């Protein structure tokens, strides 16, 4: 992992922060449209 990525994880910034659900891109592509709506 990159040092900047580690720092962002620790500070809970970017995709690791917030109250929204996160999902890996490869898992996102496997979901149906209805399932994707749950993550938006």
Short description:
Helix content is 45%, strand content 0%.
Helix-strand topology string:
HHH
Instruction: Estimate the helix proportion, in percent.
Output: 40-55%
Outline type: elongated
The profile of the biggest β sheet is: none
Q: Tell me the span between the first and last alpha carbons.
A: 27 Å
- Tally of distinct domains: 1
Mean pLDDT: 75
Low-confidence segments, given as residue ranges, are none
Strand content: under 5%
Oligomer: single chain
Helix tally equals 3
Strand count: 0
Secondary-structure class: mainly alpha
Radius of gyration: 13 Å
Descriptive account of the structure:
The protein is an all-alpha fold and 40 residues long. The chain has one domain (3-37). Helix content is 45%, strand content 0%. It contains three helices and no strands. It has helices at 3-11, 25-28, 33-37. It is elongated. The protein starts with a helix and ends with a helix. The model has no long low-confidence stretch (mean pLDDT 75).
Task: Provide tags for this entry.
40 residues; mainly alpha
Layout of helices and strands, plus pairs?
Elements lengths: L2 H9 L13 H4 L4 H5 L3
